[in-house]
């Protein structure tokens, strides 16, 4: 797994004092270079609020100078010792700063997510250790971090699309306000983003074409970092990055994070909308001067009725302490956005888990695992693929390619397909988890063989049968739960 793109060095010139104000030109130049996913080191200068700070930045492990102080919004509160830990740090020292953050948004406000607390010196370059990137210990740590919270992409994405459509369709028609407009626009933008993502997925018909199937597999998100490296060398390769599944999920996650920072500050339930404001006394009725010999009328007390006048109706009884639907809306919106953010984060963890499994290879074998969501008339379905290439051994002069496919079709049920290709000869086995599905496949084996041979594929064997499908093994052979206290 390659590390995310980092911030280019900001120069090695003289550094201004740590508490100095950032010039507008410096802040604009920094914002122009920052990208979502970059990791930067922080040198906090001042805490305006627990989530709003003035800080200086530089790329992780960078040797260049620090930027001037810029204002940044944090997704979580700055640790209590965040300023104390950096108070004695000097920009010219070689010690690693105590805070590291990931850029989650650059516009309209710079938003940072604290990702680690590193109070140890920067490790010197050297040979990889047993716990370095790509080692078994490192893979185990990554699996423990991503796999338990991973969520299937197709099922989760389909559920989000249905949920957003139901919420928008069930929104009551009320008098428009700035809060309701913000809420409705936010839902519509999320729905458009999810709809666009789904519309770019492959269809069943496209998956039956070899070239379009290869294109869909390449956009599964497993090779995003490789495509980014190619685009850095040749910008022409960056045109297809927007169609990559992982890139689109990262964009959707950024949209949700930005929406969380834009949540309107409406009053909490049970608190009137005008709480905290100074009352406007210009429109309030002023008590008339008391007459001689008559007690003064208290402020706010009803005036005495005139003689012969009918009694005025009693004012309606209001339940000011009862929370209204509008008062509950901010909490509901926050909960909804947080739930969607967890779903998107779970789908990203699913893609990362597949990438980690692709790294866990045996010597002499190359392996790629992926989940490929595709569109059907009844909704989204998932195609789980395990692609392997074994190098030629012994008397065999040709590499052996194998592909294991798992999918659940509406008419056939769970299906497990094993394809092996060696020396341009194909061996295929189709195992259905449902007996009726297995019989349907057997009835169409002749048609399937004819279609394969029409594409100039030599079919060595073609078999279909019924076999209850077993649960897939865990993604990592070593224990994922530490037994140490």
From TrEMBL:
Coiled coil (UniProt feature): none
Listed Pro residues bias regions: 286-316
Bias-annotated ranges (Basic and acidic residues): 322-337
UniProt domain Flagellar hook-length control protein-like C-terminal: residue ranges: 390-464
Family annotation (Pfam families): Flg_hook
Residue ranges, annotated region (Disordered): 1-20, 260-337, 464-485
InterPro entries attached to this UniProt entry: Flagellar_hook_control-like_C, FliK-like_C_sf
Name of the protein in its database record: Flagellar hook-length control protein-like C-terminal domain-containing protein
